[in-house]
Amino acid sequence: MSSSNRLRRWSRRWAPVAAVAVAGATLVAPAAEAAAGATVVGVASGRCLDVVGNSTTPKTRVNIYDCVGQANQQWTLTPAGELRVYDDAQCLDVAGQRTTAPADVQIYPCNGGANQKWKINADGSITGVQSGLCLDVTGAGTANSTLVGLWTCTGQDNQKWRSALGDTQPPTVPGNPRVSDLVCDAVTLSWNASSDNVGVAFYDVYHDGQLMKSVSTLSTSLTVVGGVTWGLYVNARDAAGNVSQASATVPITPPQCQPDNEPPSAPTRLTGSAAGTTVTLNWTAATDNIGVRAYDIYRGDTKAGTVTGTATTPPATTFVDSGLAANTAYRYHVVARDAQANASAPSATTTVTTGASCGDSVCAVTQLATDTDIPWGLATLPDGTILYTRRDAHDIVHLNPATGVKTTVGTVPGVDNTDGEGGLLGLAIAPSFASDHWLYLMHTSPGDNRIVRIKLENDRLDTGTEQVLLSGLLRNKFHNGGRLRFGPDGKLYASTGDAQNGDNAQNKASLNGKVLRINPDGSVPPDNPFGNQVWSYGHRNPQGLAFDSQGRLWEQEFGNAVMDETNLITKGGNYGWPACEGTSGTCGTSGFIAPKRTYPTADGSCSGIAIVRDVLYVACERGTRMYREVISGSDLTNVQAYFTGTYGRLRTAEPAPDGGLWLTTTNNGDKDSIPDNSNEKLFHVALGG
Q1: Global confidence as pTM
Q2: Given CB 3.0 to 4.6 Å as the disulfide criterion, which of 23, 53, 444, 625 pairs with 644?
Q3: Which member of 398, 479, 539, 684 is catalytic?
Q4: Fold classified for 362-687
């Protein structure tokens, strides 16, 4: 292979690059760590350092291959600086003790030779102690079975590796985040340095769970949007890929770039028509000296909903108002708003009379209850009443939907918040609940995310029965996943976030960024694809799970800033994060499974999903709407949006026993973990044909 090909730069699009070199350290681990194996993952490929063919024969070459968690990918760092494999039986060895490039690497019985000593550098490279050459994926290849050898160090990503070898300790939390120089389109964010046992490589800067940039400094300038409130925070990352917990959040609301006191003109030509109990409105766009940003639709004197646009895309001039009473006249008008909240005069009114019965797919909406905390997980008991978790308050409420009476059945022990989206999350009950009374819960603890079960006896949580079924799931401020769902096979499925570290999603030995599958007692089903709890991987922050009539699992997932996605989950499937987001990025890579539907994040940011009569219902937060999507074969068709802006941000959708839906909001206090600072609603949605 020519040196020019070897030196070709390969961009790493699936995670921030640890490009900052800090003082390197010889690979010497404490003796206590020598017994634990770990994967060594190529930065450019996302594939594991692997002994070819799972062979234990001396002189077998090494290559890169999909991370499958087998013994030929489990490496141990010894105090002598050796990289051992197969329970320490063989060492990573430079063939023929070559000290010039190129040189082959292989496995060979450990003999203490200098050609079996290695040094891991803080920039992610691994060098041979004897030669000083770098462990290199030949030809900068990224495909399975590409051989690995030694080559002159170039600093390219085919010579960068991520591993917990010798370093499993994450950095401390970045301190004192603060902003300065806030203007309409920019701000400077600064923070105090984290500390780390080896060294901090760089800092990841986020707003509200979305990665903005990665830097090596303690201050950076960020592009922001005038008039839009964001919460900024920072994570620290070391060269081994360990990620700190997030800093405190700094809220900002930049001023508008251009002062504007002129309201838009009034919308004109408002018309409406009814189909059963659904009304569709249309109007002619308003005009503005800068631009119309939204329309507020009023039913009588009550705001029925809002359609929004962006700085570059005007809002739609149509609105669907669903779930109305039959044979009733409704009077509507529309008001236009610009980006600085200047409101137009109201349009002329139009009156529309609904039909005698629901002629649409979505019919009457009934408010069941309100809550001062965020309803997150929700399940229907055999008697038709509801249990739901309160995320920040950590308790469970029993709601009778017929009467609206609520009873708190108890507080779940050991739950912790994350100053973000962690807390008491998913809730499920097994088909055997009538006899065994187990509630299944996913929640954040002070040290991890975990799945537990607790019995509900006489309408009270019996916390003495608590069993931890699965612990050690990484937590962070955002990206905790959290949905639980029992499948028709009787297994419990759980969605886990990547804990704000995209590398976790592609590592099948990690349980983060996955859909998991376990038995009701927490054990691993023998037919799981990788011998652990992982059912599918390559997910960012999945929060929706639902099964259709064929027993197929559908999943809803938050993207970063480009696309959210709905996936049809297959056993062992790789859904691409962080190499691709929806269909953006290197999604054409062989082995990645494409989503069945994507949504711009402004129209989506969807959390819970439910399937009723093979129709998928998707509850969206930032998009403030519910999508209805017909499952046809393996496709999603006839997509319609309901309740756009009517109820605000929607969190959870669940099937109701009468063939309708339970639906909850998540409008206030959604990202701050403060209990009882919300004003949420729980609804029943009647469904038509």
Answers
A1: 0.79
A2: 625
A3: 479
A4: Neuraminidase (2.120.10)
